[in-house]
Amino acid sequence: MNDATEQALLKQALMLDIKERTLFLDAISDPKLKQKIEYLLQDDTELTAFMIGTAAGSNSLKQPNIQDLKPGDKIQRILIIKLIAKGGMGSVYLAYDERLKRNVAVKTIRAELTQNASSRQRFEQEAQILSQINHPSICQIYDYIEADHGDLLVLELVQGKTLKHHDLPYDQLLDALIQIASALCAAHEKGVIHRDLKPDNIMLTADGKIKVLDFGIAKSQGHKRSHEAENNIGLIDEPISQNITKLGSLMGTLVYMSPEQASTLPITEASDLYSFGIIMQELLTGTAAYRLENTEDLRNQVINATPIAAESLSKDFQELILALTQKLPTSRPTAQQVLHRLQQIKNKPEELKLKKRNAAFVSLIVLLLVFVWWQWDRFKQKESKINWITETKEQIDINQKQLTQVYSLPKHDITNSKLKISQRQKLISERIHANPALAEHEKNKLLGESYFAIAEYADAVKYFQAAWDLGDQTSEMALDLARAHDLLYWQYAYHLTVEGLSEFEQQRLLDINKAHLEKARWYYQFDGENKEPQSSLIKAHSLFFSGEYQQALDALDKATAAKEGDYLVFEFEGRIYRTLYNQLISDGETDKAMQHLRLAENAFKQAISYGRSYPQPYASLCHVQQLYIENAIYRTGEDPTAFYHQAAADCKQLMDINPRDSYAFNSMATNAYRLAEWMNRNGIDATDMLAEALMWNQQSMELNPDAIAYETKAIIHDIMALKKQESGQNPLADIALALKAYDKVLALDPSRISKTTGNICYAMVVKFQHLLAHGQPMFDDLAMIDELLQREQASPYKKDTHYSSLYGNLGYVYLLAAYSHRQHNQPVEPWVNQSLSAYQHSIDASKSNPFAFAGMADNQVLLAEMALASGQDTGPIIEEATKRVKQSLAISQGFYWPILTQGNIEKLKARDAINKELDPIPYINTGHEYFKHSIGINPKYAPTHVFHAELYYLEMQAVNHKQQQSAFDQAVAAINQALAIDENIAEAWLLKAKLLEFALEHQIKHTAIHLSHQQLMDKAQAINPMALLSL
């Protein structure tokens, strides 16, 4: 590849944004060329060298058009390398100064703005203002070049990140604030007001140096502006580094404006100081200085100078920020005064050391006063120690308030804020460890308090216990230990899954940590006082874990009245109601359970109203919607789509707050496959929904490839397999993928064996349906299931909470095994008995499982068919089947399976009536109603159409010739509908052959059947060789 081609491709890539550039690079087929261009794009030094060393650098423009600058263009001695950014005023380029041999930044003004006198004046003024100031923390101007179609500024190239994108430790942040104050001193000394000071316009270089940028709307006291320009300052420029909406730009500017600037009043240097105060508060607290609900409310806060009080900061910074954010400009300190105060704050430790050195020096000189001084020094040291502990507790309190504020602010990504809190905690810990004046028990007590304040209860217990063991066995320490043990158990109980621990490991830790509850009670009773928990919230935790749910709710009412962490109180209340919901569902009390689920939902919403960025209630709401979806699918039969969309909204809010939380992505996948499951059952194409489920599952795995993610993947493939099976496609590939994923689940988390065994049974149900439809045996697979069940029963991890699902699916496996044995002329009753036994286990585990009752009914239908074939009485069997159908429908009225089963029961009654030469029509008519009802719910389930056709075949045997024709036509139409869904149903082709045979015998018009009797039999034989045995 020659240099000219490289230059052309590089120039194209340099003028594209990141997304377009990525697509462009992907299209380059030559891997070496692609690698070289990617390398050049990533390294400004190499890129500059390449541009200088090629013909691209010789394209000198005599009459440059500034808005069309491209890599390789040269204006006088300035070689354009690449576009850095575009904004409202113009563009910024990386360039190379050939005379001075250095990289520079080139800023242009858009061509159409050069026609506007005000815009051009601002551009020229930026150059004039920057040329006046020479300070290491202010971006320097090197040159101003006038051109026919626009002007450009040649500026110092500043490489780094803006303060908006930095999380600095305290010492570095203090140094940065000092540098900003120094830069403002230099600007104000020259009579220059920046007017747009904000973190976006302050750059931190890799070596820790501050650079104040973008003096594009700065004001020099020697320059006059029009009133219109004055009033519009800060509102007309969008930040050049951001592509955001005008509303976002306006709010971003408003946040840092002074009251007088927001009111379009004349401004002075004091305006910059107000902006600096807001920046200082934001950087030190990690949160916005104003409430950011909407633009109008924000404007009122700014005009009235009412930022949120920085109570979490030290007294020094509170006083300084309060002074800087005074509403009256004349009440604010100057830049020089602020610089001096910041330096004082930085030098405070050195001043204390100096005092101690002076005290030691005096004690040596005044020997006669050694004893007196020693006593005085001891007093001062004690006073200093008390002050030090007080300051440390203030910092602990700051961190606690920071955490509360982070959760209380409007919804935002809390990742950086939580990181800052962790960094502050690390500094607090280092500060405590490093103080030699503290006794070990004092250090441990303070460390315990610091971790307790940010809800790190395990560390709090560790340090409190160490303090206790070192002799600090006071009532106060006993209460600290009691509260910490109490809350630690609560934290383990609800947050172990965050660590990706297995269910068994969670239970093991909970069993171990029940000791925390016992210890909490012991410490509460220390000194024989039998103290109550100070917090009603903590008391509610203890009551909850004792199973006293109503008393726990009463305690939460007291906590609400006392305003004890409102979002924590309501979030815990929601959990209690959700636990009650699960119990009631298990007991079969669906209506009452739903009332409690709605109470849980309301409690979680209340929690969010207080903790708008607290992640847990969003996760809990997402789970509540998942329960609504499950209830709609398995019980009410209603359309769950609205619940799915609400769940998606709740989960996406959780993603906004905590983008690295895999729970949100896995929940999205779960809700998507649940909706797909409902769509399948209702004859709606679920292809896109299943693809969406796989997408969310993949994103979940990228964040945390744990057992839960693999379980979700397996279930998605189970549903895809069922979808294929029911449409006549081969499901075995998806079943293999599901089983492989289940193997991974058990490898990662052996404690999930009970749930996974049930899920594997579900996969085998789909496989057995396929094998049965094609006359293939399932003996090997039954042996595998038997082995899996034995392993589950022998496992120390088995959990009966999953037995309703496990035995429900196992019952279906055995039912299909019974049909397979019947197909192969082998004993059926043992498998029917095993199926009935498994379904009974399922019902014992949960009385609200409609599948178990429907499965029991289907077993009775099979027994009735066999009894009918052998001439036995079917009455008691059909009666039992009907009872089970009613039990299933009482739980889930819109479930098509028991409705279909009742249709088959009516068909059996009709056959029995025909055999007994009784009138079958009443049963046939009732059967039609049930089949039509089932088809109305799920028109895409092919077997229903076949069963319905069989009923029409019975009708043909019970009516006169004229009516036979109508029944024949209806039967053929029903079979054709079945074959349109799944052409691989052997029973459908066999039934067509029977219909044709009957039509020929009774001289019924049969032109609707286009194949011969033999052709129909051959089709059935090709699909399922065992099907012919049924004849």
UniProtKB/TrEMBL annotation:
GO molecular function term, any single one: ATP binding
Protein's name according to its UniProt entry: Serine/threonine protein kinase
Species of origin: Marinicella litoralis
InterPro entries: Kinase-like_dom_sf (IPR011009), Prot_kinase_dom (IPR000719), Ser/Thr_kinase_AS (IPR008271), TPR-like_helical_dom_sf (IPR011990)
Lineage per the UniProt record: Bacteria, Pseudomonadati, Pseudomonadota, Gammaproteobacteria, Lysobacterales
Annotated keywords: ATP-binding, Kinase, Nucleotide-binding, Serine/threonine-protein kinase, Transferase
Gene3D superfamilies, per the entry: Phosphorylase Kinase, domain 1 (3.30.200.20), Tetratricopeptide repeat domain (1.25.40.10), Transferase(Phosphotransferase) domain 1 (1.10.510.10)
Limits of the Protein kinase domain: 78-343
